[in-house]
Design brief:
38% strand, 12% helix, 1005 residues, 6-stranded antiparallel beta sheet, 10-stranded mixed beta sheet, mainly beta
Length: 1005
């Protein structure tokens, strides 16, 4: 087997933690500096029930509130979440946003919900937070309501605000002459819980619906109740939906038993009865300027999930069936032409035309709920799926959905493999509902509206115990399993709670901390490994150690992106996966929170080896201790602020030909210096960009001129502040310049081939580490580049490291003069030469690096093994004899222009380094790699090369040039992929990292 290593290059400046502490004055945090933070996903959309939505008065934006503890402001036409607003949150229920409204002037969002500690019964929970819609800043907190708030509403003139909820009172605030909100009064709803509240009749009436005692209407002139004799039919049924007509003359109510009524706002009389629905009404909204009423299914939908349209005077309309699950929030555009409904399994918001039933826009994130999980008995792999196992039922915890994706987990001598879709899911264990006479069955409690709020523990068919869930322990039993220890069971609730119970007694044992935030859909145990896997509506999988009962790691998958993280914040991810997770940092109950993305702290927290060790040990804390020692790093980092600068293209700026002007604001105030910015345009690293002064003397506003290519350029700007925070901003610009026929700048080529290891006679599995083809590969590649690529450039410069004796035997060395100044690949020479060589590359130049040889991971660090590499003793390397890859990373970082890396490697044993791979991807360094992690790169002796290098050479010679106009990057990647698969009978598949680059010519015809 060929043991060579896959390399990748680091993009941004990397500062070792100890050096940063010394340079920036990092010291242990004082007690007053401790931070309260919570790990969270941000997938671009909501991940839990959307409880309220509202349009801005101009109709341009839609605002939504969710159980995922966020408020989102959407540009609904583009489908983009422009802003995520966050307040104080905590574990469990604390921070869930149940209610919102937008002020009539469009300036303010009022939000409320469970705004207090989740545990215990000591209020207040009912503060109302007022946020500035444009900036997301918290501008005021209205106190006085002690209990959970389920709805808020502004009066039509914006001078009053109402809030109501759990206590059954409506609290009113009124604006004073200075614009400050003052408590006005409290109205008694004679109820234990008010669900919705709304102003009507031009703000002279206030309507409310309750869970336990029908509906209420008040005359706000004297705050007196308005009698509603016809409303007695609703006194014994929960009424959860309320809507007011655009003119305020009518309001509609919807009940759990499907009753829908329309009432006159002035006297409370019954105006119309809509035919009773066959489902619980989750939401109501008037549409088409009040001529229609849209009724949404909130529960007992029996697979229909439709939004029905009732037209006054015309009856039933076409309706809308775009959601695949229940809907609990709806709103109409100010002109009534479109309706927005929020729900479905992916918690999406859909805008649709009530006249035609056609979808106009979808507002959602990139993830999907995890409906199924599986795990191998030894915990070596996990599997999952997202299909609903019973779309025609309200709940079916005994049914298990299909598995559709698999990810092998790391083990000793093996790193991660990327997740893959597959139908081959044999050998995966699922939840156990019956075993050895014991069984678990979900049932409904007395007068329960749900079929699974009780879990029955049965022995030989007889019910021994009944575990009834409520608001304190998960509401219901959404998934459950017997455990292999013969003593316990695990059940998951609709709010993400995971609880272990004793099957013999039915007694409570423990609640697993750091659990899910959405309904638990699936559970599976790996008995040999003592692990538990859970999947949730919050779109994550979690892996638990059943012995310690602690969380090991959390997984998120969405298409080609993924991220795995441990509770301490260290993570491993795909190229853009770390943009999806971060830390919600509380700033106190009277201030908006901050959100720091994992990507911003990549240089500290991107640690594949810690995640790998956590999974191998089934203990994240032990993994961190093993590799980092005492760990208070995250607390230090999150106490500081990242550089929150902004960037935009100055379209009207009269820049020089071949340049665009980019304005950067906020950098100085955020602690980032323009000199520390890393700028790329498409795949080219730009250094030495020019800075122009800005008229007016604004010190926090600068303009840089960035050289660009003809056509569209994506310009990325990364700012690093004194605390090591990395913030990235991207803008797009059209490069306008005259096309010229002159060749591109200089071609810089580094070729490294090491196959002789005289000091390692038994270091590779008890055998010599000598290799067969790396020097042949490097020499032939360089010869072909000289023939086919060099003519595209003004000149070519080379730096070659290869074993002299092996090189002398190659055909390339015998037939060309390219190897006159070859250096032996020894540690000191590589360190001395490569930095100076790559520093010469300018913004118009291209650098190609070809590498073949051994490499090794030592703890979290990666080393290239030169020909003079040594070991002190078996399994212990002499680090001074190795090449610290950090040196090569920094050299490549300084190479301006385009960077391309080609590596024919075998990811065997400990030779795979994902940190370097991701840094290359993030830096837009183009990487062609022979194969994926944990796989072997094949060699066929008759080819005289590794299969990957052979395919690469054939492609550059013309095999990847179907038009005869030259070999382009993407054509070469496609050819190499097909050829490697053909030559190895699909046993080897190359991998490529080609992100946001132009499809340039690699080799001439």
């Amino acid at each position: 087997m060929r043991l060579v290593v896959r390399f990748a290059l680091r993009a941004a400046t990397v500062m070792l933690l100890a050096a940063v502490f010394a340079a920036t004055g990092f010291v242990p945090l004082r007690a007053s500096e401790t931070v309260d933070f919570h790990l969270d996903l941000d997938t671009g959309g909501h991940r839990a029930l959307v409880k309220a939505i509202a349009f801005t008065p101009d109709g341009n934006f839609l605002v939504s509130a969710s159980d995922d503890k966020t408020i989102r402001v959407w540009d609904w036409r583009s489908g983009i979440s422009l802003r995520t607003i966050r307040g104080q949150i905590g574990p469990g229920q604390e921070g869930k946003v149940f209610a919102l409204d937008v002020s009539p002037d469009g300036a303010t969002i009022a939000a409320a919900g469970w705004f207090g500690p989740s545990v215990g019964d000591s209020p207040p929970y009912g503060d109302v937070r007022l946020f500035d819609l444009r900036s997301g800043r918290l501008v005021s907190v209205l106190k006085g309501n002690p209990w959970v708030v389920h709805d808020v509403a502004f009066s039509p003139d914006g001078t009053r605000l109402a809030a109501a909820g759990q206590e059954g009172f409506v609290y009113l605030w009124k604006k004073d002459e200075a614009g400050a909100w003052q408590p006005e009064t409290r109205l008694d709803g004679d109820s234990l819980r008010i669900e919705k509240v709304a102003f009507a009749a031009g703000g002279t009436r206030l309507a409310a619906v309750t869970e336990d005692y029908g509906i209420r209407l008040w005359d706000l002139a004297d705050m007196s109740p308005v009698e509603m004799p016809d409303a007695t039919v609703l006194e014994d049924v929960p009424v959860r939906a309320l809507a007011v007509s655009p003119d305020g003359a009518l309001f509609a109510t919807g009940a759990d038993d499907g009753q829908v009524h329309v009432w006159r706002a002035d006297d409370g009389g019954l105006a119309e009865t809509v035919p009773q629905r066959g489902f619980a009404v989750g939401a109501l909204v008037f549409a088409e300027s009040g001529r229609a009423l849209v009724v949404s299914c909130g529960y007992r939908c029996a697979g229909r999930f439709e939004q029905s349209v009732w037209r006054f005077g015309a009856g039933e309309g076409a309706g809308y069936a775009g959601h695949d699950d229940t809907v609990w929030a709806s709103a109409a555009t100010p002109d009534g032409a479109l309706v927005a409904t929020a729900g479905g399994s992916r918690k999406e918001i859909r805008l649709w035309d009530p006249a035609t039933g056609e979808t106009v826009a979808e507002l959602k994130g990139i993830g999907s709920p995890v409906m199924a999980v599986g795990v191998t008995p030894d915990g070596g792999a996990i599997a999952w799926g997202s299909d609903d196992p019973c779309p025609d039922l309200a709940a079916c915890p005994e049914r298990q959905s299909a598995l559709a994706n698999v990810m092998p987990l790391p083990a000793e001598g093996r790193f991660f493999e990327r997740p893959r879709a597959t139908q081959e899911v044999g050998g995966f264990l699922r939840a156990i509902h019956a075993q050895a006479g014991w069984s678990l069955v979900a049932s409904a409690g007395e007068d329960s509206p749900v079929p699974n709020d009780v879990l029955e523990i049965r022995r030989d068919g007889a019910t021994l115990h009944r575990i009834a869930n409520d608001a304190t322990n998960g509401f219901l039993h959404a998934a459950f399993t017997l455990l292999s220890d013969g003593r316990n069971l695990v059940t998951g609730g609709s709010d993400g709670t995971l609880t272990i119970h004793d099957r013999q007694t039915g007694g409570y044992v423990i609640t697993l901390e750091d659990g899910h935030t959405g309904e638990v859909h699936a559970i599976a145990e790996a008995p040999q490994a003592g692990l538990l896997v859970t999947g949730s509506d919050d779109q994550t999988l979690k892996l638990w150690n059943l012995q310690t009962r602690r969380l090991v790691a959390t997984f998120f998958f969405a298409g080609g992106e993924f991220i795995v993280w441990v509770p301490q914040g260290y993570y491993y991810s795909s190229p853009d996966g770390d943009a999806l997770v971060g830390w919600h940092v509380n700033q106190g109950p009277d201030s908006e929170a901050r959100f720091v993305r994992a990507r911003q702290l990549k240089q500290y927290l991107f640690s594949p080896e810690i995640v790998r060790r956590a999974l191998i040990l089934a203990d994240a804390e032990a993994a961190v201790r093993e590799l980092r020692g005492v760990d208070t790093e995250l607390d230090r980092l999150l106490a500081r602020r990242p550089p929150e600068f902004q960037a935009r293209v100055l379209e009207s700026d009269a820049s020089r030909e071949g340049f665009v002007a980019v304005e950067i604001t906020g950098a100085a105030g955020a602690g980032a210096s323009v000199a520390e910015f890393a700028v790329t345009a498409n795949d080219r690293r730009i250094d030495g960009f020019e800075t122009r002064a800005v008229s007016g003397g604004d010190a926090d506003r600068i303009v840089i001129e960035v050289p660009v290519q003809p056509g569209e350029n994506e310009i990325s700007i990364a700012g690093l502040n004194e605390f090591g925070y990395l913030t990235e901003r991207s803008v797009k610009a059209i490069g306008r310049m005259r096309q010229t026929d002159r060749a591109a700048g200089t071609l810089f080529v580094v070729a490294i081939g090491v196959e002789d290891y005289p000091f390692l006679p038994r270091a590779c599995g008890g055998r010599s580490c000598d290799l067969a083809f790396p020097v042949d590969d490097a020499a032939e590649f360089l010869r072909l580049v000289d023939q086919r690529t060099r003519p595209l450039y003004r000149e070519m410069k080379t730096l070659v490291f290869a074993n002299a004796d092996a090189l002398a035997e190659t055909k390339a060395a015998r037939e060309t003069s390219l190897f006159a100044n070859v250096m032996e690949p020894e540690s000191d020479l590589i360190l001395d030469e490569i930095e100076d060589f790559l520093a010469e590359a300018g913004p118009d130049d291209t650098t190609i690096i070809f590498v073949a040889g051994h490499g090794i991971n030592i703890d979290e660090d990666y080393y290239f093994i030169p020909t003079d590499g040594r070991q002190r003793e078996p399994d212990r390397w002499q680090r001074s004899s190795l090449v610290d890859w950090e040196t090569i990373q920094r050299a490549v970082e300084r190479a301006k222009g385009r960077r391309l890396m080609l590596v024919d490697t075998c990811h065997a044993g400990n030779s795979f380094n994902p940190r370097l791979e991701k840094d290359a991807e993030d830096a837009r360094i183009i990487v062609f790699s022979a194969t994926a992690a944990n796989n072997t790169a094949a060699e066929l002796p008759e080819l005289g090369h590794g299969v990957f290098t052979h395919a690469l050479l054939q492609g550059m010679k013309g095999g990847a040039d179907p038009t005869g106009e030259g070999v382009r990057l993407l054509s070469l990647a496609d050819f190499v992929d097909r050829e490697v698969r053909r030559l190895t009978a699909a046993r080897q598949a190359p991998e490529y990292y080609i992100s946001k680059v132009d499809n340039f010519v690699v080799a001439k015809p």
